[in-house]
């Protein structure tokens, strides 16, 4: 930018190189504002009245207003010894309230227009739909006097950038909330230029360094008054405002075009997934749809949420029998389920297993899903031994491993698919042995049945002894049935859309949503032939690995684009020798 200007063509050239970066347009907007307040957006004109002379005119106007009783006599401000950055020779650094004024406060005694934060369109920088109130309706914070041409800036949670220009006369006369700083440019600083400064990256950083408070951070009046303010000549302010408006309008068009492209991608993705999952999809057309989807979806997925949708689609296809071919020679699921039932009856007869109350399947999902030939439905009670921890107080857990011996898996440790071994608690080995039914010593499904993550299901393959917490259930295969059902398929099912629906049909929607052991046993599982279960698991593993690769490549591409954007922005800011570019970060 040797000529000191930044054109629409240059903005387009930057955007073309980083168009797919997720935050490209917001960062370009910040970049334009940063150029504006650094004197790098438009050319300087030697014939402009210097800012030093403008400061004298501002001081004279303030003196007139003080004499007229319209504003209070301002306190003197210390000069800025170390400016935040270099500005052109005909600019000047000043303090916010050195070059602006507020209009004081009043208690409304007639009908008035109330401006609070909800009335601000911060993206457009204007007042929208303020409320008209009677004096008796005035909230205690309705005090700040506002007039046409003022800029209002929310000092509470200023990082939200609720800044607006009062562009029109408002009837009845407006009163603003005390949450705002009212900034009157005295007719010598353009309101729109003040808006640009307040939203520029350097000012955002300056406010963040000064604001106080945690839950509702705010900048007080005295700190706001001394914020550094880069002041250009009045004529250059006009050129800056015009150029910013031009480039922001271009950003609006780029944003609209990007949104349009994303909408087309989303529609194509949704249509592709719908063709795969639609009930009318038949065996003849499905392979064609599946090949098209698996070839097309990777090129359509540009955001992590799309990959999440792709994963769910894969699982949905898997548990509906549409991901791998059926083999007529496979033993039907019904035959395998009879073997499991025979083994369960034998365990009950020999008192190795206690029989449960018969399951009614009163809220079954079975009728809603068409299943392939050879598949069957089965309840968890037919497939698993389901139990939980009872008779132990969670307050008896130990925090440190050397104080206990057996790690306890609580609901926070059971996430969909995986066990998260963090923040573990422990119980003594002797206690775990005394509660053997709820110990985890073999491959099992773990199911959270109360709490925020209710219904999360993971598979554990223990290489050591673990124990259940009171908010986690386990589902084990019956003794002698390890070769009759695939637990990897079971966890896949419960994390699929069909399985999740089945789980949440059984959740008791009370003040504390929960599942009981009875409702867990009542949940249904779509059971393919055993051989097909293994083929499904292998196929899903392969496709999920591809999703992992796609997700990793998206992360890498996002990082690369972000770094490229940052490098290009910093390079574009090197218009002045030795300038330390910090914009658009």
Instruction: Give the percentage of residues in beta strands.
Output: 5-15%
The protein's oligomeric status is single chain
Ends distance? 19 Å
The backbone outline, from C-alpha atoms, is elongated
CATH topology of the domain at 350-528: Adenine-n6-DNA-methyltransferase TaqI, Chain A, domain 2
- Going across the major beta sheet, what is the strand order? 5-2-9-6
Structural class: alpha+beta
- Give helix % range: 40-55%
Q: Overall pLDDT, averaged?
A: 84
Please, what is the CATH homologous superfamily of the domain at 350-528? DNA methylase specificity domains
CATH architecture of the domain at 350-528: Alpha-Beta Complex
Low-confidence stretches: 575-585
CATH class call of the domain at 350-528: Alpha Beta
Number of strands: 21
Radius of gyration: 34 Å
State the helix count: 17
Largest sheet: 4 strands, mixed
Protein name: Restriction endonuclease subunit S
GO molecular function, one term: endonuclease activity
Keywords: DNA-binding, Endonuclease, Hydrolase, Nuclease, Restriction system
Organism: Gemmobacter denitrificans
A few lines on this structure:
The protein has helices at residues 8-18, 24-38, 51-67, 96-99, 191-199, 201-210, 221-225, 234-277, 286-300, 304-319, 333-349, 380-383, 429-434, 487-494, 497-505, 517-522, 530-572; strands spanning 92-95, 112-115, 120-121, 126-127, 131-133, 142-145, 151-154, 163-165, 174-177, 180-183, 228-231, 376-379, 384-388, 406-409, 425-427, 439-440, 444-448, 457-460, 466-468, 472-477, 524-527.
């Amino acid at each position: 930018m040797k000529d000191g200007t930044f054109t629409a063509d240059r903005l387009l050239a930057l955007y073309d190189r980083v168009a797919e970066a997720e935050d490209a347009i917001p960062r370009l907007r910040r970049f334009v504002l940063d150029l504006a307040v650094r004197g790098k957006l438009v050319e300087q004109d030697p014939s402009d009245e210097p800012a030093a002379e403008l400061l004298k005119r501002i001081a004279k106007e303030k003196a007139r207003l003080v004499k007229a009783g319209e504003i209070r006599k301002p306190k003197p401000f210390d000069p800025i010894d170390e400016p935040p950055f270099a500005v052109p020779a005909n600019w000047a650094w000043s303090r916010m309230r050195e070059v602006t004024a507020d209009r004081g406060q009043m208690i409304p005694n007639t009908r008035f227009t109330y401006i609070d934060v909800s009335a601000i369109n911060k993206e457009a920088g204007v007042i929208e739909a303020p409320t008209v109130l009677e004096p008796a309706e005035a909230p205690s914070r309705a005090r700040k006097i506002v007039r046409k041409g003022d800029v209002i800036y929310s000092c509470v949670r200023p990082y939200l950038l609720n800044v607006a220009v009062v562009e029109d006369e408002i009837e009845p006369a407006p009163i603003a909330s005390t949450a705002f700083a009212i900034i009157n440019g005295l007719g010598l600083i353009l309101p729109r230029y003040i808006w640009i400064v307040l939203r520029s990256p350097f000012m955002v950083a300056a406010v963040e360094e000064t604001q106080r408070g945690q839950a509702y951070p705010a900048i007080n009046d005295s700190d706001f008054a001394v914020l550094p303010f880069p002041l250009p000549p009045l004529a250059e302010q006009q050129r800056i405002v015009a150029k910013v408006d031009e480039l922001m309008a271009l950003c609006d068009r780029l944003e609209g075009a990007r949104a349009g492209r994303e909408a087309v991608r989303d529609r194509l993705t949704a249509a592709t997934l719908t063709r795969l999952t639609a009930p009318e999809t038949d065996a003849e057309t499905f392979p064609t749809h599946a090949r098209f989807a698996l070839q097309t979806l990777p090129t359509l997925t540009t955001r992590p949420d799309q990959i999440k949708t792709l994963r769910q689609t894969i699982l949905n296809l898997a548990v509906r029998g549409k991901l791998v071919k059926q083999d007529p020679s496979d033993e039907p699921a019904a035959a395998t389920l009879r073997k499991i039932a025979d083994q369960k009856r034998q365990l009950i007869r020999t008192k190795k297993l206690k029989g449960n109350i018969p399951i009614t399947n009163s809220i079954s999902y079975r009728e809603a899903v068409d299943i392939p030939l050879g598949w069957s439905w089965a309840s968890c009670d037919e497939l698993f031994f389901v139990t939980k921890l009872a008779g132990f107080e969670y307050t008896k857990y130990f925090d440190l491993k050397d104080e206990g011996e057996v790690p306890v898996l609580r609901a926070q440790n059971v996430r969909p698919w995986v066990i998260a071994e963090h923040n573990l608690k422990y119980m003594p080995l002797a206690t775990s042995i005394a509660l053997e039914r709820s110990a985890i010593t073999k491959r099992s499904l773990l199911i959270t049945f109360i709490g925020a993550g209710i219904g999360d299901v993971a598979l554990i393959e223990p290489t050591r002894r673990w124990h259940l917490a009171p908010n986690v259930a386990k589902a084990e295969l019956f003794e002698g049935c390890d070769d009759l059902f695939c637990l990897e398929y079971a966890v896949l099912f419960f994390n699929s859309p069909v399985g999740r629906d089945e789980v949440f049909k059984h959740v008791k929607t009370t003040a504390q949503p929960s599942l009981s052991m009875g409702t867990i046993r009542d949940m249904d599982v779509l059971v393919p032939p055993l051989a097909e279960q293994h083929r499904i698991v292998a196929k899903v593993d392969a496709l999920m690995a591809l999703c992992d690769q796609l997700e990793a490549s998206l992360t890498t591409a996002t990082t690369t684009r972000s770094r490229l954007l940052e490098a290009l922005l910093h390079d574009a800011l090197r218009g002045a020798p030795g300038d330390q570019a910090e914009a658009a970060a």
